[in-house]
Amino acid sequence: MKDGMRFVDCDMHIMEPPDLFDRYLDPEFKKRVILPRDSNGRPKRGTMIIDGLAVSADPDLQQYRKRSAPPKSNYGSHSGLSSVALSGSRIADSGRLDFAIKRDYDAEAQVMAFDMEGIDIAVLFPTTGLSLVARDGMDPELSLGLCQAYNNWISEFCQYSPNQLKFAAMLPPQDVNLACQELVRAVKDLGAVGSFMRPNLCNGNYWHSNQWDPLYSLHEEMDVTWGFHEGTGAWYSHMNTIYGENRFYRHVASHWIEMQQALVAMIIGGVFEFHPNLRVGFLEAQNSWVPGLLTRIEWDYPQYRDSHAPYLSLTPKEYFRRNCWAAVEGSEPEIEATASLIGADRMCISTDYPHFDSNFPNVTSNLVSVTSRETAEQILSGGATLWDFTDVDFQKAEAAAGEHRKEAVAADD
């Protein structure tokens, strides 16, 4: 808990071990996945090559070399690691992640981060895995194999403290039937609490396309959550075409614009009309864009609703408040204003641990400094309604946290 308030981290990250695919990928696909290796032949962190193409488009798009040591700045210790108010604790050389690096980002470090932020339960998302299957024309079976390898590993990772660590399953976007197959396996056999996909369009398949209906229906039937999570650098992101090599451009634009396009499609395209029990989270993209977008859709209702979307029975805001949650990262100055427009109960929060651009370990303290306690309490617990955690889940998580604290004290003694 954070100051007596329940806290679900709706979108916490892990750092995949370098040998994940050596250990978990079906041998049928191993020759198609080239891992970076050290002088002893062991996998190391770096860019993977899948079917001859780097996992992320960033290395090819980045035409200019990045500074290895950013210069001094008036904004903190380094200009590239801003410490201005909005950025909170985002200083990469502050030592805030030393405990995790020391443990190579293992599950113990993950739970240690809980105490540092006051987290009760967290839903885990990948890092490299955000771009793993993010490309058009990928062999669907290979995509499925990569998803299965990741889901098997993350399920085992969560077993360190299964009442605190939960995960969203990675699904192959190239084939909806394979995605359905993997969702069932991940939820029933591995314990996933839902799934995630990037909001980018894969193979040109719009989110309001009927092709996705089986997967939407399956989420409803199994009562699990769908999370949209952008990550920048995907080969199938049209932001690459618009903004080219400049990652600053693409990072700013993709996290908001890709999410906006997904929400527009799901509201106007009738996804929420025909799937009224679908829970969707728009994650790691802030959320101040939501009220304006809903207003823009409603502005066009009189002109186009009857002629282009006669199936819609609710207003944009009504669909959002019934089906959607959107995450903040704690330091945005407009959080209180946004909550007044869409409802704090439709908001959740992400620590983004352990990414360099996160506010960890000051996410919760930042939030309570920019909002009322009432708003903060609803946002901190918003992930519980998104991911469907109950009082029983919180009780189990609290008991697990207590056991880990006892173990830590015993180890120190």
Description:
By secondary structure, this protein is an alpha/beta fold. It has one domain: TIM Barrel (Alpha-Beta Barrel). It has 17 helices and 11 strands. The strands form 2 sheets. Strands 1-5-6-7-8-9-10-11 form an 8-stranded parallel beta sheet. Strands 2-3-4 form a 3-stranded antiparallel beta sheet, with no helix packed on it. Helix 6 links the parallel strand 6 and strand 7. The longest helix has 22 residues. The two termini are 26 Å apart.
Brief descriptors of the model:
single chain, globular, alpha/beta, 11% strand, TIM Barrel, 413 residues, three-stranded antiparallel sheet, eight-stranded parallel sheet
Summarize the structure.
Helices cover 44% and strands 11% of the residues.
Number of strands: 11
> Beta-sheet strand percentage?
5-15%
Overall pLDDT metric = 90
Question: Unreliable stretches, pLDDT < 50, 5 or more residues?
Answer: 63-68, 73-84
Looking at the structure, what is the overall shape? globular
Give the helices and strands, then pairings.
Elements: E1 8-13, H1 20-24, E2 33-34, E3 49-50, E4 53-54, H2 58-61, H3 98-102, H4 107-117, E5 121-125, H5 140-158, E6 165-170, H6 176-190, E7 194-197, H7 213-222, E8 225-229, H8 239-243, H9 247-268, H10 271-274, E9 280-283, H11 289-308, H12 316-323, E10 324-328, H13 335-342, E11 347-349, H14 363-370, H15 373-380, H16 382-387, H17 391-412
Parallel strand pairs: 1-5, 5-6, 6-7, 7-8, 8-9, 9-10, 10-11
Antiparallel strand pairs: 2-3, 3-4
